[in-house]
Amino acid sequence: NYSIPKFSASTNEIKILYFSNLLESKGIEDVVQAISILKTLNISQSFSVDLVGAWYSKITENNCLQLIEKYHLPVTIHSPKSGDDKLNFLAKADVFIFPPREPEGHPWAIVEAMAAQLPIISTDKGAIIESVIDNKNGFIVPEKNPEMIAEKLKLLIENSELREQMGLASFNLYLNNFTEEKMVDKYTSTFNAILKS
Questions:
Q1: What does pTM read for this prediction?
Q2: Residue (of 40, 158, 143) closest to 98 by Cα position
Q3: Which pick of 32, 43, 151, 187 has the fewest CB atoms within 10 Å?
Q4: Quick one: pLDDT at residue 177?
Q5: DSSP string spanning 66-107?
Q6: How far apart are the C-alpha atoms of 41 and 173, rounded to whole Å?
Q7: Which residues contact 170 (CB under 8 A, 6 or more apart)?
Q8: pLDDT tens digits for 174-192?
């Protein structure tokens, strides 16, 4: 149970964060393609992207690195982080993106992004739509759709009020549903209901 204080950056650059294994199934290629599309759009605000995680496929890594180099994308790749290093990335971010292509359970990275008061772009995989409510604390986009990711990123990059509003909604959803105390209460009531039936 924690909240991540927002870092007040002195720059106007919007920081986009992807924090997960750098796997095709986790949508990493869709993120990089979306950034290449975003770069062709007329964006009124400067932005950069941090990809934090480990590569597990040379093919996926090469595909992403080629795109980043070919189009000079404002993308920095970081090795996996934990503890204070992880919290530092979350605190400095403005937007969180995690668009898996395959079913997930309930990704802890999304819960952490909610605690960090971030708007979130994700896909309808597994239990994600329980924590990312479309148009409330972020956007649910179809899987394998970099065009839609780019469109939603553009919207969030250019609209500080929307980022703030959705970030606050994320934090409230976290406080109401995902703190340790709330999760224990929910598990207890679920187990009791099962035992009584």
A1: 0.88
A2: 143
A3: 187
A4: 87
A5: HHHHHTT-SEEEE----HHHHHHHHHH-SEEEE--SS--S--
A6: 32
A7: 113, 114, 116, 117, 118, 119, 120, 137, 138
A8: 989 887 676 556 656 665 6
